[in-house]
């Protein structure tokens, strides 16, 4: 999002965007410090572009999550996420960054029209370094969110995404709430079906009545709510306390009232002190609630976080054994699974969701195709096998 906006800003200030790094005057590297692997990728990218004559500007999360690592390889210009106005010192001759309207395209592709309702996060998850980079909560006024979402009709996108760094915390800083925002957005009038990203379970439960009401009116196409673990003890250690029984009931009821709603989640495997039994609780939660789509991440201790300092870190080999066991259980229960080589992150999707995606009218059914299937050819092959046999169990990646 920031990079798309930055592109517009640079052009309005008279700069051309070029793909060829050899001829660039400036190279802006945006960095993700979510887990150690993404930091490593960002640092490799910075090392790679250092050979060009262009001035390099590093922005994104890494200046906040891994400053020492960054300093060890780079001494050039750094602009933190929370001080983007510093771009004006270099480029803002005609237009200031704050005056550029938000761009609604998402990095995932042009099919998604994003309304970012807030930035920043007020939580304190014990494993998270991202919150240092995203800073304090800043919510847009409700009227602005409403006027932005109306622009979807003029776009070429086919999905509305409502997001924020912690979307459920929307409004805490301006006397509003996510529950009332959902009711205010003109979803029903416009026949929108929205994807709600990054909805912490505690906010899903707090504003459940509004969310259930929206689901009953079929205005929600997808909700991504990261459980991170099925064990209440582990969730407490993560400082993400939520009543898992209540959450389970909520997930099941949402699917019942709106069967086409896709529920997504994230699970961390091998959090400090996690036992085999607690891993089984995570697996059970996913299978019992028939989560449609999700990510599994191996716990990666980020320097400076509370979780990284915890004693009883889980052995790396055990983490791998556990994630492989989780994958086996998913496959045995009709999920497609794809493991990303570099980050070892796993994406999973219910086979039925994946296979119905092309044929159903609801664009959110296509989500797994956008994310799991590596290429169009792979999608076509899967679909063909499914059409001919109704079974793709032998083709699971
Ligand atoms: S909700 Fe937790 S994990 Fe997400 S950004 Fe906030 S502190 Fe980090």
From TrEMBL:
Cofactor entry: [4Fe-4S] cluster
A Pfam family of this chain: Radical_SAM
Protein name: Radical SAM methylthiotransferase, MiaB/RimO family
Domain Radical SAM core: 107-336
Keywords: 4Fe-4S, Iron, Iron-sulfur, Metal-binding, S-adenosyl-L-methionine, Transferase
Lineage: Bacteria, Bacillati, Bacillota, Clostridia, Eubacteriales
Domain MTTase N-terminal: residue ranges: 1-109
An example molecular function term from Gene Ontology annotations: metal ion binding
SMART domains per record: Elp3 (SM00729)
The organism of origin for this protein: Eubacterium ramulus ATCC 29099
Secretion signal span: none
């Amino acid at each position: 999002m920031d990079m798309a906006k930055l592109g517009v800003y640079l052009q309005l200030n008279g700069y051309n965007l070029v793909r060829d790094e050899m001829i660039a005057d400036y190279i802006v590297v945006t960095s993700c410090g979510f887990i150690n692997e993404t930091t490593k990728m960002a640092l490799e990218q910075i090392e790679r572009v250092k050979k060009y004559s262009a001035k390099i500007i590093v922005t994104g999360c890494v200046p906040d999550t891994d400053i020492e690592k960054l300093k060890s390889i780079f001494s050039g210009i750094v602009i933190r996420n929370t001080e983007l106005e510093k771009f004006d010192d270099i480029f803002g001759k005609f237009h200031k960054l704050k005056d550029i309207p938000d761009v609604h395209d998402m990095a995932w592709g042009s099919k998604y029209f994003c309304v970012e309702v807030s930035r920043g996060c007020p939580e304190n998850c014990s494993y998270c370094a991202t919150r240092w980079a995203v800073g304090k909560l800043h919510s847009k006024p409700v009227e602005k969110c409403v006027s932005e979402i109306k622009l979807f009709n003029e776009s070429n996108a086919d999905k509305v995404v409502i997001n924020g760094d912690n979307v459920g915390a929307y409004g805490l800083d301006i006397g509003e709430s996510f529950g009332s925002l959902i009711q205010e957005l003109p979803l029903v009038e416009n026949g929108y079906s929205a994807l709600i990203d990054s909805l912490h379970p505690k906010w899903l439960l707090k504003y459940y009545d509004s969310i259930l009401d929206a689901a009953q009116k079929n205005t929600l196409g997808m909700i991504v709510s990261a459980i991170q673990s099925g064990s209440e003890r582990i969730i407490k250690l993560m400082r993400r306390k939520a009543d898992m029984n209540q959450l389970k009931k909520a997930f099941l009821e949402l699917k019942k009232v709106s069967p086409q709603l896709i529920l997504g989640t994230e699970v961390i495997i091998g959090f400090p002190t996690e036992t085999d039994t607690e891993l089984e609780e995570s697996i059970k939660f996913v299978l019992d609630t028939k989560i449609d789509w999700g990510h599994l991440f191996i716990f990666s201790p980020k320097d400076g976080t509370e979780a990284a300092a915890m004693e009883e870190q889980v052995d790396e080999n055990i983490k791998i054994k556990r994630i492989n066991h989780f994958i086996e259980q998913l496959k045995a229960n009709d999920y497609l699974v794809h493991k990303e080589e570099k980050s070892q992150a796993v994406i999973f999707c219910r086979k039925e969701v994946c296979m119905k995606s092309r044929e159903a009218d609801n664009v959110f059914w296509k989500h797994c195709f956008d994310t799991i299937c590596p290429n169009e050819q792979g999608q076509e092959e899967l679909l063909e096998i499914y059409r001919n046999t109704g079974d793709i169990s032998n083709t699971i990646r």
